[in-house]
Design brief:
Beta-lactamase; two-stranded antiparallel sheet; 10 strands; Beta-lactam/transpept-like; alpha+beta; 15 helices; Beta-lactam-related; six-stranded antiparallel β-sheet
Length: 373
């Protein structure tokens, strides 16, 4: 009896293994239909699931050619379709901009990756011993030991909005003074060196850059990054022109959501941008890849390809995603195949899987011989 059960289990395991490797081979063996534009259009339609209300904007760059595709409309009342110049909140893609500002200041000699909070801020603010030793490298790579968001910040947000509406606009109730007050104790901080994704850590990095430079993060981003690249519609502050181009965001339930505002920690998620600006930004990283052996490591703020990305063949991809109350985003670059993709959605929904599939599409399909734009 036991022998029969063992044989049965062995057969099941063999069948499961065969099914896995068959599926894996099918996923990796993709026919190039030689019309990437058409394939992108179909993929974007899948992302929206036929819902015309929420706006989504996709940009794909591959080997010298860029293409944008949108679905949905600005709002329930405005039927106009968004385009590559429409404004979205980009959430945690802001971290890539903040880290790029850091690298600009490193090139200018203001700081190094090994500079500590104690060295950069200790003479102006009271810091706990744990905080003093944290390096900028640790803030960038999420190895500082700081929590994702300190409990005292969560408590303050709950007091303001209540548990039910904690995601209404959580960072709006925080200030730089709250950040400095927390650093006096660093309550809840773990030992440095272990990876734990921290919005607080990257938000703090933005404040550190402000302290050492004497300029606001938004001004630094414009001076060091956006102006040079022509990213004229990327900012933490909305101008009148940007406000007019801002699409309506929706929460995960499809209800209208207010814009998130950042009284503190805007370096972690406070930027607004367009698909055109963000694709330009991503192409900048691809250009850097020819100047360095490893420009897209964790020091750049990127996530490296994990098991899921590699399962779909995206082994050379660096990526990041983001989400705020009414928006979500996904960005990825493949320096080997010279590809960059950006997805901006006016709904708070996880875009990681759609992003993986879009990158797979961009890798395996080629443009038609005619111009796709």
């Amino acid at each position: 009896m036991i022998q029969n059960i063992m044989i049965f289990l062995l057969v099941v395991l063999v069948l499961v293994a065969c099914a896995f490797f068959y599926a894996r081979r099918k996923i990796l063996t993709v026919e190039d239909k030689k019309h990437l534009k058409v394939e992108i259009d179909a993929e974007v339609t899948k992302m929206t699931k036929g819902d015309p209300k929420e706006a989504i904007m996709v940009g794909v760059y591959k080997q010298g050619t860029s293409y944008f595709k949108s679905e949905g409309r600005f709002s329930e009342d405005l039927y106009q379709q968004p385009d590559q110049h429409s404004i979205f909140q980009i959430g945690s893609l802001s971290k890539l901009i903040t880290v790029s500002v850091l690298h600009a200041l490193i090139r200018e000699g203001l700081v190094t990756m090994d500079s500590t909070l104690g060295e950069l801020m200790g003479d102006k603010y009271e810091l706990s011993e744990d905080a003093k030793s944290v390096t900028l490298h640790q803030l960038v790579t999420h190895t500082s030991g700081f929590p994702r968001v300190p409990k005292v910040f969560i408590d303050k947000t709950v007091d303001q909005f209540g548990k039910e509406d904690i995601l209404k606009n959580p960072y709006s109730v925080l200030s730089f003074d709250d950040v400095i007050e927390y650093l006096k104790t660093s309550e809840g901080k773990k030992e440095s060196g272990y990876v734990e994704y921290s919005n607080f850590g990257t938000g703090l990095l933005g404040h550190v850059l402000e302290v050492v430079s004497g300029e606001r993060l938004d001004c630094l981003a414009k001076d060091k990054i956006c102006s040079a690249l022509g990213m004229n519609m990327t900012s933490t502050e909305l101008s009148d022109e940007m406000n007019e181009s801002m699409v309506q965001g929706y929460d995960r339930n499809g209800d209208k959501a207010d814009l998130w505002t950042f009284g503190a920690l805007e370096g972690a998620g406070g930027f607004n941008s367009t698909a055109a600006d963000m694709l330009t930004f991503l192409k900048h990283f691809l250009n850097q890849s020819s100047d360095s052996k490893n420009p897209l490591d964790a020091d750049g703020g990127w996530m490296k390809a994990g098991k899921l990305e590699k399962f779909y063949g995206n082994k050379n991809v660096s990526w990041h995603n983001g989400m705020v109350g009414g928006f979500s985003s996904y960005a990825a670059i493949d320096p080997v195949d010279d590809i960059a993709i950006i997805i901006l959605s006016a709904k708070a929904t996880d875009l990681t899987m759609p992003g993986i599939m879009l990158m797979r599409l961009a890798r395996t399909q080629s443009w038609a011989t005619s111009n796709p734009s």
